[in-house]
Amino acid sequence: MDYTTEDIVNAYQSNRLEYIRADKDDENLKKVSLAILQDPVIQALTAPTMLLPKGKKDVDSYVESVANSLLGVAICLKEDENKTEDKDKKSPTIIGVMCIGWGGISPTVAHHRTAEIGISLLKEYQGKGYGREAINWIVDWGFRHAGLHTIGICTADYNPRAVHLYENMGFKLEGRRRGTIWQNRKWYDLVEFGMTEDEWEALRGLDKA
Fold first, then answer.
1. Looking at the domain covering 6-204, what would its CATH class be?
2. pTM, full prediction
3. Lowest mean pLDDT among 83-97, 113-127, 134-148
4. Which of 60, 67, 122, 127 could join 22 via S-S bond, C-beta 3.0 to 4.6 A?
5. Where are the domains of the chain?
Protein backbone atom coordinates (compact mmCIF):
# COMPACT_ATOMS: atom_id res chain seq x y z
CA MET A 1 0.00 0.00 0.00
CA ASP A 2 1.17 3.51 -0.83
CA TYR A 3 0.72 5.52 2.37
CA THR A 4 1.40 8.77 0.53
CA THR A 5 -1.82 8.53 -1.49
CA GLU A 6 -4.30 11.37 -1.14
CA ASP A 7 -6.88 9.07 0.49
CA ILE A 8 -4.49 8.45 3.40
CA VAL A 9 -2.76 11.83 3.64
CA ASN A 10 -6.08 13.72 3.62
CA ALA A 11 -8.12 11.13 5.51
CA TYR A 12 -9.38 13.62 8.10
CA GLN A 13 -10.30 16.49 5.80
CA SER A 14 -12.14 17.43 2.63
CA ASN A 15 -11.90 20.42 0.31
CA ARG A 16 -13.02 23.12 2.77
CA LEU A 17 -13.53 21.20 5.98
CA GLU A 18 -11.68 19.17 8.57
CA TYR A 19 -13.14 16.62 10.95
CA ILE A 20 -12.18 16.30 14.62
CA ARG A 21 -13.24 13.35 16.73
CA ALA A 22 -16.07 14.32 19.06
CA ASP A 23 -15.05 14.49 22.73
CA LYS A 24 -17.75 14.52 25.39
CA ASP A 25 -15.63 16.92 27.47
CA ASP A 26 -15.07 19.45 24.66
CA GLU A 27 -16.69 22.67 25.87
CA ASN A 28 -16.48 24.26 22.41
CA LEU A 29 -18.40 21.31 20.95
CA LYS A 30 -20.96 21.55 23.75
CA LYS A 31 -21.49 25.24 23.01
CA VAL A 32 -22.13 24.54 19.32
CA SER A 33 -24.34 21.57 20.19
CA LEU A 34 -26.45 23.76 22.48
CA ALA A 35 -26.93 26.28 19.66
CA ILE A 36 -28.03 23.44 17.35
CA LEU A 37 -30.36 21.84 19.89
CA GLN A 38 -31.89 25.17 20.91
CA ASP A 39 -32.80 26.09 17.32
CA PRO A 40 -36.34 24.75 16.79
CA VAL A 41 -36.01 24.76 12.99
CA ILE A 42 -32.80 22.71 13.04
CA GLN A 43 -34.33 20.39 15.62
CA ALA A 44 -37.46 19.84 13.51
CA LEU A 45 -35.49 19.23 10.31
CA THR A 46 -32.82 16.90 11.69
CA ALA A 47 -34.48 14.75 14.34
CA PRO A 48 -38.02 13.37 14.77
CA THR A 49 -38.00 14.21 18.48
CA MET A 50 -40.50 16.25 20.46
CA LEU A 51 -39.99 19.97 19.90
CA LEU A 52 -38.97 21.40 23.26
CA PRO A 53 -36.22 23.62 24.71
CA LYS A 54 -32.99 21.85 25.60
CA GLY A 55 -30.73 22.27 28.62
CA LYS A 56 -27.35 21.15 29.93
CA LYS A 57 -28.36 17.52 30.51
CA ASP A 58 -29.72 17.28 26.98
CA VAL A 59 -26.49 18.70 25.55
CA ASP A 60 -24.33 16.37 27.64
CA SER A 61 -26.38 13.35 26.54
CA TYR A 62 -26.30 14.44 22.89
CA VAL A 63 -22.53 15.01 22.81
CA GLU A 64 -21.88 11.73 24.62
CA SER A 65 -24.00 9.83 22.06
CA VAL A 66 -22.12 11.51 19.20
CA ALA A 67 -18.78 10.68 20.84
CA ASN A 68 -19.82 7.04 21.34
CA SER A 69 -20.86 6.60 17.71
CA LEU A 70 -18.94 4.42 15.30
CA LEU A 71 -17.55 7.79 14.25
CA GLY A 72 -18.73 11.11 15.62
CA VAL A 73 -17.03 14.33 14.55
CA ALA A 74 -17.09 18.06 14.92
CA ILE A 75 -17.28 19.58 11.43
CA CYS A 76 -14.73 22.41 11.32
CA LEU A 77 -13.68 25.04 8.82
CA LYS A 78 -10.20 24.64 7.45
CA GLU A 79 -7.88 27.52 8.29
CA ASP A 80 -8.17 29.01 4.80
CA GLU A 81 -11.99 28.92 5.10
CA ASN A 82 -11.87 30.60 8.50
CA LYS A 83 -11.54 34.34 7.85
CA THR A 84 -10.39 35.22 11.37
CA GLU A 85 -7.33 37.46 11.72
CA ASP A 86 -6.27 35.68 14.91
CA LYS A 87 -3.49 33.37 13.75
CA ASP A 88 -2.93 32.12 17.31
CA LYS A 89 -6.52 30.96 17.70
CA LYS A 90 -6.43 27.64 19.54
CA SER A 91 -9.96 26.37 19.01
CA PRO A 92 -11.13 25.34 15.54
CA THR A 93 -14.28 26.92 14.15
CA ILE A 94 -16.93 24.22 14.58
CA ILE A 95 -19.85 24.63 12.19
CA GLY A 96 -21.73 21.42 12.87
CA VAL A 97 -21.86 17.89 14.22
CA MET A 98 -21.98 14.62 12.29
CA CYS A 99 -21.93 10.94 13.14
CA ILE A 100 -22.34 7.52 11.62
CA GLY A 101 -23.62 4.69 13.79
CA TRP A 102 -25.30 6.94 16.39
CA GLY A 103 -24.42 6.03 19.97
CA GLY A 104 -22.28 3.08 18.91
CA ILE A 105 -22.90 -0.21 17.15
CA SER A 106 -23.55 -3.26 19.31
CA PRO A 107 -21.18 -6.21 18.71
CA THR A 108 -24.29 -8.38 18.27
CA VAL A 109 -25.22 -6.55 15.04
CA ALA A 110 -21.81 -5.32 13.87
CA HIS A 111 -21.53 -8.22 11.40
CA HIS A 112 -24.26 -6.63 9.27
CA ARG A 113 -21.79 -3.83 8.46
CA THR A 114 -24.44 -1.14 8.17
CA ALA A 115 -24.83 2.28 9.78
CA GLU A 116 -26.84 5.48 9.43
CA ILE A 117 -25.59 9.04 9.08
CA GLY A 118 -26.80 11.99 11.16
CA ILE A 119 -25.74 15.59 10.54
CA SER A 120 -26.61 19.05 11.89
CA LEU A 121 -25.14 22.39 10.81
CA LEU A 122 -25.41 25.77 12.50
CA LYS A 123 -27.91 27.98 10.67
CA GLU A 124 -25.31 30.48 9.42
CA TYR A 125 -23.39 27.72 7.63
CA GLN A 126 -26.35 26.14 5.86
CA GLY A 127 -26.93 26.56 2.13
CA LYS A 128 -23.20 26.77 1.35
CA GLY A 129 -22.58 23.18 0.29
CA TYR A 130 -20.92 22.19 3.57
CA GLY A 131 -23.52 19.53 4.30
CA ARG A 132 -22.99 17.80 0.96
CA GLU A 133 -19.21 17.95 1.40
CA ALA A 134 -19.34 16.52 4.91
CA ILE A 135 -21.74 13.71 3.99
CA ASN A 136 -19.57 12.74 1.02
CA TRP A 137 -16.57 12.60 3.35
CA ILE A 138 -18.22 10.36 5.95
CA VAL A 139 -19.66 8.08 3.24
CA ASP A 140 -16.14 7.68 1.83
CA TRP A 141 -14.79 7.02 5.33
CA GLY A 142 -17.47 4.41 6.02
CA PHE A 143 -16.83 2.40 2.88
CA ARG A 144 -13.09 3.02 2.53
CA HIS A 145 -11.89 2.70 6.11
CA ALA A 146 -14.67 1.22 8.29
CA GLY A 147 -15.53 -1.71 6.03
CA LEU A 148 -19.24 -0.91 5.89
CA HIS A 149 -21.41 -2.63 3.29
CA THR A 150 -24.42 -0.30 3.39
CA ILE A 151 -24.94 3.25 4.65
CA GLY A 152 -28.30 4.87 5.33
CA ILE A 153 -29.64 8.38 5.85
CA CYS A 154 -33.19 9.57 6.44
CA THR A 155 -35.31 12.69 6.74
CA ALA A 156 -38.90 13.78 7.20
CA ASP A 157 -40.87 14.38 4.03
CA TYR A 158 -41.45 18.01 5.10
CA ASN A 159 -37.73 18.56 4.37
CA PRO A 160 -37.68 18.50 0.53
CA ARG A 161 -34.21 20.07 0.37
CA ALA A 162 -32.75 17.08 2.20
CA VAL A 163 -34.70 14.64 0.03
CA HIS A 164 -33.35 16.31 -3.13
CA LEU A 165 -29.80 16.44 -1.74
CA TYR A 166 -29.65 12.76 -0.81
CA GLU A 167 -31.06 11.67 -4.16
CA ASN A 168 -28.64 13.97 -5.98
CA MET A 169 -25.71 12.49 -4.04
CA GLY A 170 -26.53 8.98 -5.20
CA PHE A 171 -28.53 7.61 -2.29
CA LYS A 172 -31.41 5.37 -3.33
CA LEU A 173 -34.92 5.67 -1.94
CA GLU A 174 -35.48 2.56 0.15
CA GLY A 175 -38.88 3.29 1.58
CA ARG A 176 -41.22 5.43 3.61
CA ARG A 177 -42.43 4.89 7.14
CA ARG A 178 -45.82 6.44 6.57
CA GLY A 179 -47.36 8.73 9.13
CA THR A 180 -44.67 8.11 11.76
CA ILE A 181 -43.67 11.74 12.48
CA TRP A 182 -46.05 14.04 14.35
CA GLN A 183 -45.09 17.69 13.82
CA ASN A 184 -47.20 20.80 14.36
CA ARG A 185 -50.53 18.94 14.34
CA LYS A 186 -49.84 16.92 11.20
CA TRP A 187 -48.53 13.44 10.39
CA TYR A 188 -45.53 13.10 8.08
CA ASP A 189 -43.54 10.25 6.55
CA LEU A 190 -39.98 9.30 7.44
CA VAL A 191 -38.16 8.95 4.11
CA GLU A 192 -35.33 6.40 4.17
CA PHE A 193 -32.38 6.37 1.77
CA GLY A 194 -29.46 3.98 1.41
CA MET A 195 -26.29 3.34 -0.52
CA THR A 196 -24.50 0.02 -1.01
CA GLU A 197 -20.77 -0.47 -1.30
CA ASP A 198 -21.20 -1.43 -4.98
CA GLU A 199 -23.15 1.77 -5.68
CA TRP A 200 -20.49 3.85 -3.94
CA GLU A 201 -17.72 2.22 -5.97
CA ALA A 202 -19.62 3.01 -9.18
CA LEU A 203 -20.16 6.64 -8.09
CA ARG A 204 -16.45 7.10 -7.33
CA GLY A 205 -15.26 5.16 -10.38
CA LEU A 206 -13.45 2.58 -8.25
CA ASP A 207 -12.67 -1.06 -8.88
CA LYS A 208 -14.51 -3.55 -6.70
CA ALA A 209 -12.70 -4.46 -3.50
1. alpha beta
2. 0.93
3. 83-97
4. 67
5. 6-204
